[in-house]
Write a structure and sequence with these properties.
With 193 residues, this protein is mostly helical. 73% of the residues lie in helices and 4% in strands. The termini are far apart.
Length: 193
């Protein structure tokens, strides 16, 4: 029986090494097997890209900032980090990665609005709303996109639907900032621009 277990472990490690890219990716230590430092997880990549984006922002390197934020979104598109595995140590890390993803998406939306890339702003807004249907920043993006496209009917519908859902679910109204934005966007001057 122990020979079968040893064989299964050996076969699993061998397959994992092939999957990870080579024999040096999994090391045998006194305590057992571990991933070698040459294996970089998506989590490490996300944290590195976030750090690099912060450094690029200090240098005002727009292309570099955008690249790093796009990589964060791409790496976190698969869903929650290590989904299906439970452990108290994972909760904080999952929350941090979700926060970094949201921050990256909001910064990309802001940059894309400045550059006039309305389709990308709309796509990011819908991704944010898929995670949280009450995300005001996502709705703000969709309202601005609708106004810039001169889709006044869509603009009014988005705001009315959001206000209705908010009233039904939380018995509250949209924030003063969102109401002000909506009022500004629905004036003839804002729609004409």
């Amino acid at each position: 029986n122990s020979a079968n277990i040893a064989n299964v472990v050996h076969t699993t490690v061998k397959r994992a090494r092939v999957l990870l890219g080579g024999a040096e990716t999994i090391e045998l230590t006194e305590d057992g097997y571990r991933l070698a430092s040459c294996v970089e997880t998506d989590c490490e990549r996300v944290l590195r890209h976030y750090s690099d984006a912060r450094q690029a922002r200090k240098r005002s390197a727009l292309f570099s900032v955008t690249f790093h934020y796009e990589q964060i979104v791409r790496l976190t598109d698969a869903g929650p980090f290590m989904e299906g595995i439970d452990g108290p140590w994972l909760d904080g890390l999952r929350t941090r990665l979700a926060t970094l993803r949201r921050s990256a998406m909001l910064r990309l939306m802001q940059t894309d609005l400045e550059r006039g890339l309305l389709d990308r702003v709309e796509e990011m807004s819908h991704k944010l709303l898929a995670l949280d249907e009450f995300d005001e920043e996502a709705l703000r993006g969709l309202l601005i996109v609708s106004a810039r496209r001169r889709q006044t009917g869509q603009l009014a519908k988005l705001f009315a639907d959001y206000a209705q859902k908010l009233k039904k679910e939380f018995k509250s109204e949209p924030s003063a900032e969102l109401r002000t934005l909506y009022a500004d966007l629905t004036t003839t001057k804002a729609v004409a621009e």
